[in-house]
Amino acid sequence: MDKVQMLLATSAALFALGLLGVIVRRNVLVMLMCMELMLNGVNLSIVTFAQQTASAVGAVLVLLVFVVATAEIAIAIPIVLLLVRRKNVLDLDAYADLKG
Amino acid sequence: MIETVLLWVFAATALAAAALMLVIRHPMRVALALTATMLSLAGVYALLGVHVIAVFQILIYVGAVMVFMVYAIMLLDVRDRALVRSFSPLIVPGVAAGSVFVAVFAYAVWKTPAASAAVGSPSPFSLQRFSVAFLNDYWLHFELVSVLLVAAVVAALAVLEAGRRRRG
Amino acid sequence: MSHPLTLIVVLPLLGFLANGLAGNRLGKSAVSAIGCGLPILAFLAAVKCFLLLRAGGNAALLDTAYTWATIGGSSFEVSFYFDSLSAVMTLIVTGVGSLIHVYSIGYMKEDSSYARYFAYLNLFLFFMLLLVLGRSLLVLFVGWEGVGLASYLLIGFWFEDADKARAGKKAFITNRVGDAGFLLGMFLLYQALGTLDADRINAAFTGPTLPAVSASLVGILLFIGATGKSAQIPLHVWLPDAMAGPTPVSALIHAATMVTAGVYLVARLSGLYIHAPEASALIAAVGVATAFFAATIAVAQTDIKKVLAYSTISQLGFMFVAAGVGAYGVAVFHLYTHAFFKACLFLGAGSVIHALGGEQDIRRMGGLARRIPVTFATFAVATAAIAGIPPLAGFFSKDEILWYALASSRGGSPLLFAIAAATALLTAFYMFRLLWLTFFGRSRMSAEAERHAHESPLSMTGVLVVLAALSAVGGFLSIPHFLGSLLPLPEVKPEFEHVETPLIAVSIAIAFAGLAAAAFVYGGDGARGERLRERFPALHRVLSGKYFVDEAYDRLVARPLYWVSDRVFLRLGDRTLLDGSLHGLAALGRRTAAGLSRVQNGNLQLYALLVFVGIVAALAWSARHG
To answer: Are B100 and C620 a contacting pair at CB < 8 A?
Structure first.
């Protein structure tokens, strides 16, 4: 396996692990962290592909992903904070209010 | 030669730490595992020649995002069920789907011919080149992310305001 | 216009429109003027056409009003055909019809729906004229249905009474059953001949090559329609109930004109029936059976109109006997005389009812001869006519029928003659019974009726006198001779040739025997009649219960039909199948939705899992397909 294949496999594995973590873990904060892991996996694949061309598109895109991840986490954590303060529970099962 | 070995080492570390994230129970330790993953990835980026992104990875992700996560974990250290039973009921279908995914992906990767692109170490991607591109060709995206960040700040304030008003 | 043929038909239609749409706003005299004037004008137009017909040597007049439809290669026109047969019918319909319209002025004077009555009466006249003047069987059928409609409207004229409305419904539905046969016959004719014009049909059957359809089958099918309209067995049940309508309606529709449409149909298609011996035999058999059957019932009836209704059924049976043995001209002759005396009888009954203020039960009449003399005289003349006493009209036509029933080479037989003669005897008996119980003897009226009894106004008695006169002298006009070129009389069997004159004596003897028997049984104080009834209670019950035919129909036809409707169509078909499938579909949708909504249980991780599964599936698919 050459370098590119290995890196792509790693990025896919990271993404899969992140998604699996979202599904499998109960703790809300751990879920958020697994989402970050997914984003990281995607970043790796972008960089791998961008590296094969000579333009700056890849780097710019990665930076955009950074910014979006930051904005996202900046909002997500306060929301989680407020939710948890209401119910005093970090377990995701307690937040199934939108059922139906 | 050494670069290839280091590349493999960093990739393996990232994977191992990510796998650990799934099984570690305490959220604080999970955060540390994630930080380890991110640092390894920064190393990979550096070895690939995009130093700009490697630095940004550490600055933004580890320096801002993970710090914020750690703050949140420390604030919300609530003794609850999540610490006792850490896996949701969907673990079986989840793992099943995950293994299928791995199988499919491994098959796909193994099948594709080794499209060896510019494997040789390319010229490093300099900061100057990056900033010129970012502010010249992709200035629209630059502006948009600025707007996004402003929006995020406003939203965060609003959320906190709502929270403060509820708490009286 | 060279001949006012279409005008004859259109005039009553105008009367219907005028009185129907604006009748309530015009006064009673205007309604009477329009309602009676237009039929009288139609009668005058018919007379004119008749004179033209004679002048042209009995060549038929033809008038095409308009083309109804052109389908494929064939066109259907509304055309009117006036030959000698149509002439007789048209003159009867418009003549007797006009007289009855005039009578109605007096009879319906106090009714609140005066205009509606005359509108319906004119409508009936219009349809009847379509029937007798139509060239094509299709136009005839329109008239056929239309008179059924008018009959329904007029029988149920006082529809506030549920029984009367039900009688109208019964008439219409029974007619429709017969019409199914009529339609099938028409379809067969059209398929075989490509035309429905009566004269062309006759020509096709009397021509050199016979058409490729069984004349007997068509004949029987058309006769089924005739049994419905002319109240023969088994579809006779509507006529007695139809007496619920006003008496002039009974006279016009159920005595003189509509019920004779069946006889007219057979006579019109004589060319077909000559070549249909099985059908003719059936007609004769049904006719004589109905005649005898109805006569036996009439003997035991106590309502004056019901006696006359069964008498009508019986006389129609006679007409069909004549038609069945090939003597179509004789059948039309009896139709013609019957129109006069039966109309006179019905209108006379109406006069009696009017005089007594609504009483119809003959057990509560009696001794009226001196109180209402004109009615009595006309009623007596008409009764003698129907019994067959010479030289009144009924004698001539009935004698001809008996003669041909015995001696016709196309189906006459001694058995037929015997039953017909027995029926004639019964006819004389029950008619004179009616006369005796109504007009003679001690008065059995209620005190109120006694005080009320008075002679009817001139508009009513005048008509009675005219009709009685026609019943007396009408027989001298030899209709069979007039129709001879169109409807030739059948040959007589040689062994009976010498019996003709003795037979006349036999007919006269039968008539007087009936008179004598009735006078004997019901004369004096009527006690002998009572004793007769007590000696045969079971027979009396069967006869006065009309052989329980209605009850049989109800048990055999109506109730099973109702059961099928209720159990099979309503419960099984409508509720279980249709509603059930619709509700089932709705329930299916609801349950599917309930099942599917369990996916949305609010659990974020389940959603993420589903996304993951989707991604994996997409990847697997793209990996397989390159």
So the answer is: yes
